[in-house]
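Students often ask why inverse folding is considered easier than folding. One informal answer: many sequences map to the same fold, so there is more than one right answer. In these notes we will look at a single instance of the problem. The structure comes first.
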């Protein structure tokens, strides 16, 4: 079975959230640690984390700092894919740090995807994570701009994207504000 790396985009400043999301603690665990644990539990190895507005230690991950994090998610995706290039992985599963409802079972479906271009869906709506085979990395990185990340690339290759339903085992809602206690 081919090796699949994991990539967590966690560099943003979290304007609407009130600060960087990566170190935020939800249910007793930092979001960044949870994202790494979920990717590893789903079969990704190694796991890379792109940091920026907040930089700190992240156990069980290769930490990468994006000096241009303020330029948006696209710059973090470029930095992350550039780092993963050194891994022996044939594919990478990319997720965002602010998906507390993502599960290892959902990630496993992406890791096991037959296509080298796949995206999770929740009730038919496309979301994260997304799987890119190595042959896509350079073009994905080249098209990643602003906060759109890989959206343009995925739209241009929509006919080739395997949609993998994970809504029965995960929740793809992103966290834009701290939950009320």
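Output (designed amino acids):
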């Amino acid at each position: 079975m081919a090796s699949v790396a994991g990539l967590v985009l966690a560099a943003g400043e979290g304007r609407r959230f009130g600060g960087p999301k990566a170190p935020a603690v939800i249910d007793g665990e930092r979001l960044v640690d949870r994202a790494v644990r979920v990717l590893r539990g789903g079969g990704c190895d190694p796991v890379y984390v792109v940091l920026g507005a907040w930089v700190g230690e992240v156990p069980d991950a290769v930490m990468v700092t994006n000096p241009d994090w303020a330029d948006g998610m696209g710059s973090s995706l470029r930095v992350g894919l550039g780092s993963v290039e050194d891994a022996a992985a044939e594919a990478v599963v990319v997720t965002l740090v602010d998906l507390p409802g993502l599960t290892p079972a959902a990630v496993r479906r992406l890791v096991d995807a037959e296509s080298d271009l796949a995206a999770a869906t929740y009730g038919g709506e496309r979301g994260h994570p997304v799987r890119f085979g190595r042959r896509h990395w350079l073009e994905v990185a080249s098209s990643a701009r602003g906060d759109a990340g890989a959206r343009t690339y995925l739209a241009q290759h929509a006919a080739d994207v395997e949609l993998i339903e994970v809504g029965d085992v995960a929740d793809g809602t992103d966290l834009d504000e701290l939950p009320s206690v």
